[in-house]
Amino acid sequence: MHELLLDLYACPSAPERWPAVLDQLRDRMSALSAVVQVLDHRDGRFHPVWTVRDSYSSAHWREHDRVFNNDSNPRLRVGAGDPMPRHAAVTRDEDIFPPGSADLREVQRRRRALNLGANLSGIIELSPGRFLALVLHRSADCPRPMGAEEEALAVTLLPHLRQAVALGEQLHMATLKADLLADASERLGAGVVLCNGGGRLIWANGSARAILAGSPVIRQSAGHVRAVLPADAIPFRRLLARAAGEAVERPLLLTLGRMEGDAVVQVMAMATRWAPAPVQVPGQPRPVLLLLREPGRPLNLSPASIAGLFGMSSAEARLTAGLCDGLSVAEYAHRRGIAEGTARIQLKRALAKAGCPRQAELVRRVCASLAVSLTQGGGLADAPRLAAAVP
């Protein structure tokens, strides 16, 4: 039993291990098949929403789904109008269907069609309206029914199955949230780094990895985020230590490479609000979130995003994106091969649609909008490395 439980609790982080665990249970119960399902109970019937099977059932899943695991299964109508069990309950088909009833005859017919004999089904509540079911079948060639020993094992195992499934769902949701946050971070136009107060890198998004790989003022070295220039090293370490060690209400800001012309990286450091780990390593700094931005890089805003947000035409949005990347109206017109007068007419219309009196206000409003966060691309790919401001 201990080995079975150890393998069971490995399934939340390694779902591919479910068939092997159910094989162990099947062999322990002298069963032919073992299936675990999550069922939603609504409109007076059960609706399967998740299923894992032992290797035998996995090999025959098409036939099992065609004959048994579908909406016409009489078992899924059990409980209509009755209170649902909150604690582990174990039943057999012959216990829940009246003797000689049409439903019992239909279930037995389906079992024979799949070479399935005596069954044992356990059910336990996962959450209101959602239940976990364990379904075991002996072979039709085995006359021995599931007895008290198998029933006791199923009752003992059901809470552990519930816990394993709940942990798997929590892990799946945490992974999904992490993936969504990572995807969202890529759309911010800034590098996002999670490190500890000593600079040890925990995670970085793609923009941050590009900065750390190519910037002359901040790099990843030996698993740590470090300032490259001697003049920046001490201020950067102090920034990390302060963010990790103090309850700082406002973000801490630092510019690295201040004397290096365009090779500048702006750093914003924020202390995380994570709860301490259950097992705290003595002296380990708390995590710190860093936002990295190279202000000399063009934004390459999507004209489609600008057009959608501000109701501009494609031509007006392309011009606005060029201005946000630091081009003058004359430079934009030259690059697009249009007359400067035409570009100025487009600018006038763009200003009116964005509700801006001046070109600089238009750039500020667009750069502060969702256009910065939306999908990149579609801007001027050959825009020069200029500050995103215009006179």
Automatic annotation (TrEMBL):
Gene Ontology molecular function, alphabetical: DNA binding
Gene3D superfamilies associated with the record: Winged helix-like DNA-binding domain superfamily/Winged helix DNA-binding domain
Protein's GO biological process: regulation of DNA-templated transcription
InterPro entries: Sig_transdc_resp-reg_C-effctor (IPR016032), Tscrpt_reg_LuxR_C (IPR000792), WH-like_DNA-bd_sf (IPR036388)
UniProt domain HTH luxR-type: residue ranges: 309-366
Record's protein name: HTH luxR-type domain-containing protein
Organism encoding this protein: Nitrospirillum viridazoti CBAmc
